Each structure stands twice: as C-alpha cells, then as structure tokens.
C-alpha cells in the first residue's frame, strides 16, 4: 500500500461543504487535504441556490432557523471575501423572494406561514394578488395573495463551488482526486482514509463531508455512521432571451398540489425551476414525470415560461437527516468529525458550516450556535430508545 505525507486535516468530499471546511481550516493554519474524484461537483451543481431562511421556515424547525439566520447574516461578508480572493463573480443577488398562493387553501397555508414567521421575529409582508402582480407582472392572474420576503436572497451554487476550489488552492489545500473507500482507524482514533487505488492518506483529523454518501464510507464504526439518506431533487434550467428580460425580478415560489415549486432568476438570464423531492435511493434519473410536474406547476404560477428555451434538466441528491438539520462537529470516534446532513439548506449553511468546523478542528469544540447540531444528538436518542 502506498502512503502519502500526513495532513493535519483530511476532508472526505469536495462539494461546497467539504470545500468551505477545508478552506477555513487551511486559513487557520492546518495542513489540509481534500479527497474527492471531482472537487467542486456534488449537489451544488444542481441546486438553485436560494438563501431562503424565512420562506423555507417549517413548524418544529426553530432551532435550525437560528443556524440558518446566522449563516444568512454572514453571506455578504463571505461573498465579499471569496470574490476579493479569487476574482470570481458568485452571482449573489439580494433580490428577495415572493411566495404566492394560487387558491384559497394555499392562501390559508401562506397565512399560517406568515404568522409563524411573525412569531419567530422574521420580517415578511402580506400582499394581495394585485400587489403581487404589480411586483411581478408575469404572475398568473389567479394569484390570490403572497408574502414578500426581502431578506431571502440567492447565489449561483456552480460559481460558488468554483470559487471555493480556487480559494482552497490559494490557501494551499491539497486535492487527492480519488474516491475515499475506507476510513482508517488506529488505536481507537480516525487516522486517515484509503482511496480506491489503495493509497493510504494519513491525517490527524478526518472530516466526513460526503453529502448523501456520508453514511457509506467503509470502516466507520456503526455507532458514529451518520444517519443521512439521499433525497432526490430534479431541477430545470431555462433561458430568458434578452427580449423577455427582466422576466422575473426576484425568486417566486409556491406550493402547488402539495409540492414546492420555485423559479429563481439569475442576472445572466438563467431561470432555475425546482424541485422535486423523491425518496428513491441513489437514483439520479431525470424522468418525464418529474419534468412534467415542474413545468406544469411553474406554468400555473407564471404562464409565460412555456415560451422560454429549456436548456438543462438534472437531478441531484440532498443529504437528508432524521430531523432535517445538519450534523456538525466531533463524533464519538476521536479524530472523526462530520459536516453533512444539510438537506435543503446546504448552500445557505455553507458560511456557518465552514466557521463551525474550523473552530471545532482547532479547539475541539463547536461554537455555541452550532452545538445543537452535534452528531451526538442521534446517539443520545438511540440510547434512550433502547429497552432497559
Ligand atoms: N432548498 C431547495 C430545495 O432543497 O429544493
């Protein structure tokens, strides 16, 4: 077996979560490496990039809301730092979001969300259907009302990935372009990984940031294996020809027949339409049914989309966790940390995850805001469920 020099930190997974962790760790002086066959790939290549802490608020997720808001607050400085460092334009738009209702049931639903947002101290404004159409003239005449959320922005996740790869390179992060096959454990401590070609990569600490694949690394003891699962999302990309611009001014979203649909307009004319939510294992097939449902629902919201060229269809896998919140920080195996399970909020949670993991890697502890997301919460719950 060939051996490579030791890193202080080895990050398994080069998606945006692994990259931000590696970048922040390297900035704090850790000798850092990333193992991934294709750094900058992963779910961010499919994601729409909504930074939607307020419009994606759900009952029972108030703890997650705190982390989402902490990350949203960091976004302007995070983008400025990455842009200055790499020269990349990240497609960050502080354009706001409009969540609309198409019928009376939707309106009741949205009213409830509005009340929950108000109870949570969040800013959102109720608009009549007419006021919604004044803001977004392409909306269907049947829109019954909506919520204007000026604080929910967007970024282009593909550009974010590319910028994070560049930032890592500048910070001296080493990329091993290979699959991590097995975690190495020496003397009861995580000590590196073995890659598909048999190379042993040694490290003082290992961060498992493999998105929906994080639960599949061989050699991870059962009791610390992250309980993540893939949740498929099919996403479409359309193009707004200059003669139709601006087609939409902000992200527009709704729940149609119980499914979320959102339209995210980029400054460069791309219009992202997402997303299905399917529990089908590691299947990433784009299906006729998925595309049909997205176009049907998006067309109900914004009838004019049928005029636009459809330029891409793709499916990605969100890393779902049992409580829809991420798993961050040290595990019960010394030397092994997790940064996974971000589910619907991976792009939004990128800045706070990088900071929390860098803190944990250099001090051994999570910062206060990230402590509720310790992977140990699931272990404690499992022990409580065991018969006495
Ligand atoms: N946050 C959007 C999605 O997961 O589809």
Please characterize this protein's 3D structure.
- The chain is α/β, with parallel strands linked by helices.
- Helix 1 (16-27) crosses helix 7 (350-363) and helix 2 packs across helix 5 (157-170).
- It is built from eight helices and 18 strands.
- The protein starts with a strand and ends with a helix.
- It folds into two domains: 3-45 and 159-227 and 322-385, 3-Layer(bba) Sandwich (FAD/NAD(P)-binding domain); 97-150 and 230-320, D-Amino Acid Oxidase, Chain A, domain 2 (2-Layer Sandwich), CATH 3.30.9.10.
- The strands form three sheets. Strands 1, 2, 8, 9, 10, 11, 17 and 18 form an eight-stranded mixed sheet that branches.
- It has helices at 16-27, 62-86, 104-119, 129-135, 157-170, 288-301, 350-363, 376-385, and strands at residues 3-12, 32-35, 50-51, 97-101, 125-128, 145-149, 153-154, 174-176, 180-186, 189-195, 200-208, 229-239, 251-256, 259-265, 270-274, 310-320, 327-330, 336-340.
- Glycine is lined by residues 50, 56, 233, 274-275, 318, 344.
What are the SSEs and their pairings?
Layout: E1 3-12, H1 16-27, E2 32-35, E3 50-51, H2 62-86, E4 97-101, H3 104-119, E5 125-128, H4 129-135, E6 145-149, E7 153-154, H5 157-170, E8 174-176, E9 180-186, E10 189-195, E11 200-208, E12 229-239, E13 251-256, E14 259-265, E15 270-274, H6 288-301, E16 310-320, E17 327-330, E18 336-340, H7 350-363, H8 376-385
Parallel strand pairs: 1-2, 1-11, 2-8, 4-13, 11-18
Antiparallel strand pairs: 3-7, 4-6, 5-6, 9-10, 10-11, 12-15, 12-16, 13-14, 14-15, 17-18
